[in-house]
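Many introductory courses stop at the sequence. We go one step further.
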Amino acid sequence: MSRRTAPPSGAPAPTSARLAGRPIALAPLAEEVAARYFDEFPDDLERYGEAARDWEIHDTSYCLEWAILDVEGLADLEREIAWLSDILGSRGFPLERLRRNLELSADVVAERLAEDGARVAIRLRAAAAPLAS
């Protein structure tokens, strides 16, 4: 019997963060990252079912928020990613895919947030590097 992954429950993902004094909507960024991620890893939709997209957007929203907060000096992105990788790894999720998600997040942020996004993208890439296999 195969058990399907349940959608995210509990605390909802963050919807915005402030970067250089301006609000940043996280959902559109996370949705773009998810689209790119599933273009590369469509098998995750088969493996995790309908909840895969919800989890991708949920976790990516948190990663984006942590990266922005890191740039603002309010969080430690690498510590948060280490925590997330421990959880995902214990569930059998391939950590190289978390690494790729962070790289895709960096690409999207750099494209969509111009010069402020470049600082966030640098942080995301730095957090991804230790996950290289």
